[in-house]
Structures are given as C-alpha cells and as structure tokens.
UniProtKB/TrEMBL annotation:
Domain of life: Bacteria
Keywords: Methyltransferase, Transferase
Originating species: Roseococcus suduntuyensis
Lineage: Bacteria, Pseudomonadati, Pseudomonadota, Alphaproteobacteria, Acetobacterales
Domain Methyltransferase type: 77-123
A single GO molecular function term of this UniProt record: S-adenosylmethionine-dependent methyltransferase activity
Protein name: SAM-dependent methyltransferase
Length: 247
C-alpha cells in the first residue's frame, strides 16, 4: 500500500472520528449482525470496527498494511501477499485499504483466495461524490475514492458477486458541534434524500466460484473415433441369403 492515507489514529481519537465510528458501525451491524461461528478478518484499519463481533464465537484477525502504525491486537502485512492459507476465512472487512492500495487487483485477488467458497467481502471506501472525499483533513479525503458503481464493477471484475450496497456518513466532515450532535438526524435525512452524497460506500460481495473459470476456458476439442478392439466387436446379423443357404 502507498502512504497516501495519514492520521488514522489521530482522526479516530477526535470527535468527528468518534462520530464516524458510530455511524459506520451502525451500517456494518445491519449488514452483518451475527458472525457467530465465523472466522472474520479485518483488513486495512479495521480495529475501530471489529468490536462489533468481539463477543461472538469465532476467530477475529486484524491485519494492518505495512505502511501504517500497528495497534494492539493487529499484525502488519503486505496487501498483495496475505499471510493466510487458502479458503481459511468466512468474512473479510476491508476498510481504509482499497483507496490507498497500489496493488488493488492483487489485493482483491488475495481476498478471494483466502475466503472460503461461500465467503463474503465487505468493502468500505470513500464515496467519490460525497463531501468527505473533497477534504483531506480526514482519512476519507485521502487516497482514491470510488463511486458506488465503480466499486461494484471493480469487485465483479475480480471474481466477486455483489450482493448489497449501503451508504453511511452523511454528517458534514467538519468538527462543528451542532452537526456532530445531530449526526443521527443527518444520517436519517441523508439516507432518504441524498444517498449519493454519503461519505462512504459499503458494498458486500460474495466469492464467485463460477467466475473463476472464464467463458470459453474449457475446449471440447475434436471428437476422436477409434476402432473397437476385436474382443469387443459385435458381429453383424446374418443376411437372409446366408440363412437360406444354411437351411
């Protein structure tokens, strides 16, 4: 990953960051309310959000890009070479990862590799059309933002099937007290009247096993006709003339 996203710990310790955590967690909880018995990976800067499933049975793993400062309970990794075996996870939450990655396609390929056949990926990325993407004093204004359509097409091109799309973070990206105090109202109004102006897009996608085999990859080839071995040969029925002669 590149070093394009800065100030994550400082942002999440600030009042706007705390509001962002609360609003995004609301959407994550709605999409994945119960991960009991599932193995979940938080990839990127997912530590503020992994607590949603902390009390549920199953493994919880947090991997942080090597360019970020690790926090307690996380491990550093390269985004294009995850230190996990094939088909070892049920869920991946990717946040503060895609927009800053210099290896977007290898990153998504790695996510596909480590997910089980019915595994799901939940991507949270800055919305290109939202005001949060216009100001770089927050992490959501750094890196490469995506429109919802761009994000969906990217996932589908990397062998994922998009299941659901959501939006969050309609509150203005400024430390205004009146705005932060009314964050839930901003969220409610925005989800009804201005979904395209959300701060982040959330896209849930499922590992597409059928996409792993491109159309036309299997060739039927030419049919080869071989002679039947003598021991399996079937004698033709006797003709009427030969039958008459024997009679």
């Amino acid at each position: 990953m590149s070093g394009e996203v800065h100030g994550l710990p400082e942002f999440y310790a600030s009042p706007p960051g705390q509001v962002a955590i609360r609003l995004i967690r609301m959407r994550l909880s709605a999409l994945w309310p119960d991960c009991t018995g599932l193995d979940v990976l938080g990839l990127g800067w997912a530590a503020p959000y992994m607590g949603i499933w902390a009390g549920q049975r199953g493994r919880r793993i947090s991997l942080v890009p090597a360019c970020f400062t690790p926090v307690h309970g996380t491990a550093l990794t390269d985004d294009h070479d995850l230190p996990l075996p094939d088909r070892s996870l049920d869920r991946i939450l990717l946040i503060h990862g895609l927009e800053a990655s210099e290896h977007v396609r290898p990153l998504l390929r790695e996510c596909w590799r480590v997910l089980r056949d019915d595994g799901r990926l939940l991507v949270v990325a800055p919305n290109r059309l939202g005001p949060w993407a216009l100001f770089d004093h927050t992490p959501f204004g750094q890196g490469r933002p995506y429109s919802r359509g761009q994000l969906s097409r990217l996932l589908e091109s990397r062998m994922f099937h998009v299941l659901r799309r959501e939006e969050a973070l309609f509150v203005p990206p400024f430390p205004w007290r009146f705005a932060l105090r009314g964050a839930r109202l901003w969220e409610s109004v925005g989800r009804v009247a201005a979904r395209r102006l959300a701060g982040v897009s959330l896209v849930e996608a499922e590992k597409d096993m059928f996409a792993a085999l491109p159309a036309g990859a299997v060739s039927l080839g030419r049919r080869v006709v071989q002679p039947v071995p003598a021991r399996y040969a079937v004698e033709p029925p006797a003709s009427d003339d030969s039958s008459s002669a024997r009679a």
